[in-house]
Structure formats: C-alpha cells, structure tokens
Amino acid sequence: MEDGTTIAAARETILEPAREIPVARRTQVLVVGAGAGGYPAAIRAARHGAEVLLIERHPVVGGTGPMSFVTEFLSCENISGILREVQQRLAAHDAAPAEFLPEYFNLAYDPEMLKLVILDMLVESGVDLLLNTQVVDVIMDGDAVKGVIIENKSGRQAILADVIVDASGDADVASRAGAAMHPREAPQPMMMLCRMGGIDWQRLQAHAHANPDDFSKLWGVPPNVLDGAQFVHVTGWKSLVLQGKEEGALPGTFGHHISVFGATPANLRNGIGYLYAVQVLNRDPTDAADLTGAEIEGRRRARDFLPFVKRIPGMEQAFLIDMAPQIGVRDSRRIVGDYTLTRDDIFAETRFDDEIALKVYRGPDLKGWVRHKPDGSEGGKGHDPADLPLSVVVLGLPYRCLLPAGIENLIVSGKTVSFDNEAHQRIRLMPECMAMGEAAGAAAALAARDGLPPRRIDPAAVRALLAEGGLNLERAKVRLSEVRQTLASRGINVVMP
Ligand SMILES: Cc1cc2nc3c(=O)[nH]c(=O)nc-3n(C[C@H](O)[C@H](O)[C@H](O)COP(=O)(O)OP(=O)(O)OC[C@H]3O[C@@H](n4cnc5c(N)ncnc54)[C@H](O)[C@@H]3O)c2cc1C
Questions:
Q1: pLDDT reported for residue 384
Q2: What is the 488 CA–ligand 1 centroid distance (Å)?
Q3: H or E stretch covering 266
Q4: Which of 106, 430, 438 to mutate to test the pocket of ligand 1 (most atoms within 8 A of CB)?
Q5: Which end of the chain is more exposed for a tag (fewer CB within 10 A), N or C?
Q6: pLDDT at position 382
Q7: Ligand 1 mean position to 245 CA, how many Å?
Q8: 119 and 172 share a domain?
Q9: Assessment of whether the complete model's pTM goes beyond 0.90
Q10: Cβ < 6 Å from ligand 1: which residues?
C-alpha cells in the first residue's frame, strides 16, 4: 500500500487524496458516447449552432452497431432524419442499399464504413471530438451536473458544460450524478457476433426455400429472395440446432435458431455475412469483472461453435474473418425519468404532447412476452414472434423519458432512457436510439442558447427543430398499412385494426 497502487480486494478501500486538476475545456453541449444515441445528438446540436464536444472512450465512433457487429438497422419503417442521411452516405460507398422501402424493416450496412460516415458527419457539422477518453466522474452543483472528469493519455482533467447528454449506453454520467435507476429485472443475453467469409448465399437461400418450416417467416427468407435491400437476413435451421443440442455439439443454453445476416449488396456478391448465435447469459455490463468474464466466455463459445456452422448448407466453406471487437450488450442501467414508457403505452398507442420520435413496433401483444429471455431460449417453439399474432403499432416516445428525475442539466439518450422492462425489450434498436439522440441534441442546443435547464425547454420547439432537420414526427406519413400488408404477404398472422 506504500505507493497507493495496490488493487483493493473486495471491501478493502483506500483514501484517494484530493488534487487539483486542469479544466481542459468549457463547452455549451457535451455529449458522452458516440453510439447510436450519441453521434446524432452531437451532429444535431452542432447543426443548430451549439458549440459541441463529443467524448468517446474508443478510438472509433459508432458504438454497439459497428463495435459489436450489429450490422442491421432494424425497424426502419419510419426512416428519416439522420438515419436517412446515414443510409444515403453508406450507399454512396456501396456499404448499404441505395433504395430502401420502409415497409421492409432491416437495413444492412458495412460496419467499417459506418464508422467513417459518422466521422465525416461529425467533422462536417463542426463537432469537436475527444477519442480514447473515458468519463470517470461528474462535477455537481447541488442537483445540477456542471461537468465531468475525464481520464486519457493526457491524464485526469475536467470538462465543464452548459448541458450534458449522457449517451454512454450505461448511463454512466446519470449514475455518477446519483440518478435513480430501474431494477434490471430480466437481463437480456449478451452476444458475440462473428464476421464470416466464404458464404454461398445462393445455397443458403435455396435450402431455406426448400425447408420453409425450419425458418422464421419474419426475418428474411422464405418466401422471398435475398436482394441486399428488402431481404438481408436468414434465420432458422431450427432442426439442425435441436440436433446439435441432442448430440451435445451445442450447449443446452444455446437458443433455438441461428441467424446469418448483414447481406448488403456487396456482402451478397462477396460471400460475407454475420453469425448471430452465441449468447452469454446473466452478466452485468456495469461490473468490470463480470463484463471481462462475458468477453472471454463469448469469444471461447464462438470459437467452439464455428465447426458446427459448416453443417449449414452453403456454409461448408465459410471461415471466420473476425469476431466483434466488443461483446454485444443489450441492456444496462435504465434511468428513472420524468416519465417511464410502459408496454401498455406501446399497445395503446398512447400519444404524448412531448413526442420526439415515432417508431413502428410489430410484435405479439402478450403481457410478459419478451423476445430476449434471460435463459437464452430466444426463438423457441411458440416464441418466434412470426409464429404469434403480430400487432403493428406506431408509438411516440416522450421527451420526458430522457430526463433523469431530480437531476438538472442532463439529458440521457439511447438504450438507457426511462422505459419499463417490457417496453425496453421492444424499443432500444438503433433507429429509435438515433431519433432520441437527435432530440437530445436539439434540446441541448436550445437549452444552451436560451440559458435554460433542459427540463424547461418547450418540447414544441424541440419538435420544430427535429422536423426542420428532416425527422418525421407525423403519423400520417408512416406507411403502416403497407407494413401490415407486407407482413401478411409473407404468411404472418397480422392483427388488423
Ligand atoms: C446482440 C445485439 C443485437 C442487436 N440487434 C439489433 C438489430 O438487429 N438492429 C438494431 O437496430 N439494433 C439492435 N440492437 C440494439 C442496438 O445495437 C443498441 O440498443 C444501440 O446500438 C445502443 O446504442 P447506445 O448509443 O444507447 O449505446 P452504445 O452503442 O453502447 O454506445 C455508447 C457509447 O458510449 C461509449 N462510452 C461508454 N461509456 C463511456 C464513458 N464512460 N466515457 C466515454 N465513452 C463511453 C461507448 O464506447 C459507446 O461508443 C442489438 C444489440 C445487441 C447487443
């Protein structure tokens, strides 16, 4: 303990001496985290005239999408705003389809190019970036967050800001500020995704067409054709998975299906795709040791799974290109906000005066139903959403879900906003995280401009800025009947209004 550097054993503590640290920057808007909830916030705030600093702990931007190989924007029925711009910029680099019909909901993209597209948009919008920098604490004045403490190669420093957007994916800032959190009732499995080469997509598709009962009707083929635009995903091989479990080639906790996804036009041409299959159960992403364990378990399980993949017709020659740099974390802390969106709000299509995003949700209206169960039994019989009557609804997300109760100067964006467990299982995809990010950015710019706390901003003014930026907030423009018809044409039991 003489040099003060000994790692404390559990419950042992040391006193960290107080010290003076430099204020590295003052800014109007500080965004923490450059994932789906963060980069749109920074871009939107800067485009509305605010001075913006974006801090990211990784050397690259994009968050879970590119870092964990979640290579499809899912649920893009209301594609607009920054997501539409991202799609068009990706398409210009052959990294996503150029045409995208909203009634088909998966938009596949190349993760490497997404990082660059986001970087371009940030730089062009005038956002200042600080990469390889971790936010480690907050600076408080009573209930108000006034800034953060960072650590990076330059040491420990302070950043002061008029308004802070916490898009850390773990609500790190809100948590350090003492915000109340919802309990994590049913931890959703983490996943280790693999990028594969040598995929014969034609054979994959032919096998799925020949064995439709073995595949999900919802996720791509059958009965349609993989085209890199509307159909980008194959989910099934249910009997193969069952056989693997019976033989002991797959662990009992393995889900009930395998997905091969991310079929952009370029990936279809080049035999590349992403394996979505390897789950890690019951881990806490806010516990460093547990998260380390999840990374180790995920990589080792993925390695052990790879020989099995060769049993898939069309994957005999498949080879691993790389595993995702970071395990995919579906859920973490969730703040208790000024309003908590519930699963009942979703199916009642509750309307809110302060709606800052519209999302189409299609799923079974069953109380207690969740897609990602803690025991990993995703996709099991009677559990594949495509086997159940699907409600298709448009829901609005209220601005108040982004405001941590009792804490000032802080807006939370992304998967950690105030939703109950069942709502969160349904609404935490990249498109809605991006829309929340746009709203957080617009609100932060207004708050900084007018010298008001984010809680006192007029949501109508936020909505006006979002509409000006191209985000669709009009229900009449969401092609809901086309979505329902498209699903029904694929043999799915859609609940018609
Ligand atoms: C296995 C899996 C499958 C999924 N499937 C889909 C799908 O098919 N389609 C879809 O649209 N969505 C899908 N999702 C959901 C979606 O990917 C996430 O909900 C979404 O990307 C979350 O974005 P976020 O910005 O809230 O958080 P994150 O993506 O986690 O971004 C947080 C960012 O903050 C940074 N950060 C964290 N802490 C700090 C700190 N203290 N200081 C500085 N920086 C920090 C991180 O490095 C990261 O860049 C899936 C998720 C998983 C895990």
A1: 77
A2: 31
A3: helix 265-270
A4: 430
A5: N
A6: 65
A7: 30
A8: yes
A9: yes
A10: 32-38, 55-58, 63-65, 68, 70, 72-74, 134-135, 167-170, 172, 191, 328-330, 414-415, 428-431, 433
Residue nearest to atom 20 of ligand 1 (CA): 430
For 119-144, write each residue's pLDDT tens digit: 999 999 999 999 999 999 999 999 99
**How many angstroms is it from 472 CA to the middle of ligand 1?**
23
Q: 358 alpha carbon to ligand 1 midpoint, in Å?
A: 20
Q: Whose CA is nearest to atom 38 of ligand 1?
A: 168
H helices present in 311-458, as ranges = 343-348, 421-426, 430-450
Lowest mean per-residue pLDDT among 34-38, 215-219, 279-283, 448-452: 215-219
State which of 290, 323, 356 marks the end of a domain: 323
In this prediction, residue 221 has a pLDDT band, given cuts at 50, 70 and 90, of confident
- Gap from CA of 241 to ligand 1 centroid (Å): 28
pLDDT, tens only, 349-380: 999 999 999 999 999 998 988 888 898 887 77
CA distance 490 to 492: 6
> How far is it, in rounded angstroms, from Cα 191 to Cα 463?
35
Instruction: Note whether 208 and 201 are within 8 A (CB).
Output: no
Cα distances from 51 to residues 36, 42, 163, 466, in angstroms, run 20, 9, 11, 18
**pLDDT band (50, 70, 90) for residue 304:** very high
Same domain, 338 and 470: yes
Q: State the distance from the centre of ligand 1 to the C-alpha of 403, rounded, in angstroms.
A: 19
242 assigned to some structural domain:
yes
Residue 227 domain boundaries: 190-323
Tokens 């801090």 belong to residue: 55
Contact indicator for 115, 66 with CB cutoff of 8 Å: yes
Which ligand 1 atom sits nearest the alpha carbon of residue 428?
19
At which residue do the structure tokens 């989910």 appear?
235
Are 115 and 223 members of one domain?
no
CA–CA separation, 495 and 497 (whole Å): 6
pLDDT recorded at residue 270 = 98
Report the number of distinct structural domains present in the chain: 2
pLDDT at 9 over 70: no
Angle at the Cα of 388 from the Cα atoms of 382 and 392, rounded to 5 degrees: 150
* Beta carbons within 8 Å of 269's beta carbon, 6+ residues apart: none
Same domain, 140 and 200: no
Q: Which atom of ligand 1 is nearest to the CA of 332?
A: 30
Q: Which residues touch 303 (CB under 8 Å, ≥6 apart)? A: none
